[in-house]
Write a structure and sequence with these properties.
By secondary structure, the chain is mainly alpha-helical. It is about 90% helix and about 0% strand. The longest helix has about 60 residues.
């Protein structure tokens, strides 16, 4: 065999080996890219879900009454007890006054 034929055969084998190698690398990279795309889509979907959850929670947070609002609207237990005792004292005084008036009216 002549040297140019050996060179041609080696060049052809080298070309075929390079072609197969590049094709395998391309297939591997294509698979990797597809996997990454699917992971990115899943991550975007999770991000969208989290964004919706955060929006919903922010909406709920704005509707929750604040402690100032609660203090203005509702009376504490201690204050309620004090007011109850004060009102009870007022009614007792009122009952005593009414009974005195009725006693005087009955005597007359």
């Amino acid at each position: 065999m002549e040297s140019w034929m050996v060179s041609a055969i080696l060049a052809t084998i080298t070309y075929i080996a390079m072609f197969v190698t590049y094709k395998n690398k391309t297939d591997t990279h294509t698979k990797s890219i597809d996997e990454l795309k699917s992971k990115i889509e899943k991550t975007e979907q999770k991000t969208d879900n989290n964004r919706m959850d955060i929006s919903s929670l922010n909406t709920q947070l704005t509707t929750v009454p604040t402690t100032e609002h609660i203090r203005q609207e509702f009376v504490s237990k201690e204050l309620f007890q004090q007011m109850k005792e004060h009102i009870d004292e007022k009614f007792d005084k009122l009952e005593n006054g009414i009974s005195k008036i009725l006693d005087k009216l009955n005597k007359d």
